[in-house]
Amino acid sequence: MFPQIVNPISYNGWDDILLSTEGSTFFQSSTWAEVLSESYGFTPYYFYIIDKGKFSVLFPLMEVESLFRGRRAISLPFTDYCEPIIDKSDSFFEIFYEIIKFGKRKGWKCIEFRGGQSLFKSLHPIFNPNKNPGSENYIIHNINLRLGEDVLFKKLRESNRRNIKKAQEFGVKIEFLNNWESLENFCYLNSITRKRHGIPPQPKNFFKIFYEKILQKGNGIIALALYNGKPVSAYIFCLFGKDAIYKYGASDLTYQHLRANNLLMWESIRWLYKMGYERLSLGRTEHDNHGLRQFKNGWGGEESLISYSFYDLKKEKFINKNREISRSSKWIFNKLPIPILNFLGSILYRHAA
Asked: What is the CATH number of domain 4-137+306-321?
């Protein structure tokens, strides 16, 4: 059976089918597709097969067109991971080549897959990790919320438990909200955080659409840490079925001594557990981001690898790709005022997918 191609935004009942499919995530949902499509103008092409009310095959792709990088497809843009769904009874080889043929007709330069490394290795000799690595590896942290609050707290790193207590003693308060004011508070913290890292923030229009499509409809939550009524740290979680994903985080380093991030993460874990969620993904971490990796390792989750693979349609092979922002660019962005960074983000962000 060959896969069909659809825009999930216009497919009635897409998310219901997805929730019935083992291994599915929020990132494969029509909701996330709608946010990306409306925010950046990306065009969804989702390859799928439905069998007995579930997806036996699902390869989400979005066409991204850029003056700087040409026309290409990504599974999926601005997404931490997007593991393909494929039942053992279906031929990955045939499905992969249907995607390649379609991409050539559309004039794509390359296709980026954010997951599916084990499937691509089965394409030998087309994919040879030694001769054509064509992949970037990242770390994913997952927390099993079903363990319960007491067990989860015992699994925390000792320093995290101390910092949680310290934040409580300072009087840091935690709130869980999904209103526009809380999102504006996050956007302010996000702007100063991105400036610190030398990266423009996401466009304000993206968060406006994120608010309308996700937060207002109960598919996400904002966790805010406040000190004397002032927001000092914020996390955004996407929610889907029994799963939660830590998608964005931001903080004001002026208040780092409060250890608000520690209390905020723990109270978020507690809140998600009490609301009935069973799994929490802490998202993607680069190998060389030792500070973030250490922070995420302190919450009692399990570490695993996720691989991004790049297939060049003209060369007909997997290739290596360097997407690192240069140190000089980061230095320049770090020195720019926040209003200018916000303006640059509104122009450049879609090209950085």
From this structure: 3.40.630.30
